[in-house]
Amino acid sequence: MEYNTAEKPLKLPEYGRNIQNMVDYCVKIEDREERKRCADTIINIMGNMFPHLRDVNDFKHILWDHLAIMSDFKLDIDYPYEIVRKEDLHSRPPKLPYNNSNIRYRHYGKTLEHMILKATELEEGEERKQLIRLLANQMKKSFLTWNKESVDDEKIFKDLHELSQGKITLSIDNYKLTESKDLIGRGNINTNRKSHSRKGR
To answer: CA 93 from chain center: how many Å?
Structure first.
């Protein structure tokens, strides 16, 4: 009795030992035309094993790549596609460039930092005041979301002054932000509304 453990390792185990044996046989066929017909038959069998993948882009191309891999690139036929190269199988993809720009306060995020700097470019007026008020309240909400504790307005104003490069100065004497409990409460109300609407569907 022969055991699979005594056989050579499968290059693509998902196709099984029988398909690998067919590929090995195909490689040894001397007649080129017959070898190509055999390869076409193997591709059809491989495709029938995964019918749910037929709609995947380049499904046939993938099968021919797999056939080449299982033959250890020894199958000498005219492939209908440009198959993967052996040397590319184990090559690493290039590293993705990551944005390494520093975020001064992670709980505020980079987008909020950009918006604060944008606000400094606006001319003095009601629009600038409204935007600054919205940004300060958003900073307070973000702080509470990350830290889960109360924060006084003076801390927010200090951070806003720093993030605006000293161009925005607020004080508790002339600015009053939304209460912490109201900021957190609004988030809970919105969440509850969503959950109720989902239950009603």
So the answer is: 16
Largest Cα separation within the chain, whole Å, is 93
Q: What is the pTM of this model?
A: 0.46
Both tokens of 30, joined, read 């001397």
Tell which residue, 32, 33, 39, has the closest CA to residue 60: 39
Give the tens place of pLDDT for each residue, 103-114: 777 888 888 888
Q: Is residue 13 included in any domain, yes or no?
A: yes
Backbone angles phi, psi at 167, to 5 degrees: -95, -10
CA distances from 16 to 22, 41, 113 (A): 10, 16, 55
Q: In angstroms, what is the C-alpha Rg of the chain?
A: 32
User: Look-up: residue for tokens 């050579």?
Assistant: 8
Q: The tokens 């909400």 sit on which residue?
A: 141
- Range(s) of the domain holding residue 64: 9-87
- Give CA–CA dist 175/133, Å, rounded: 8
Q: Is the pLDDT of residue 162 over 70?
A: yes
Interatomic CA distance for residues 141 and 182, integer angstroms: 10
Tally the domains of the chain.
2
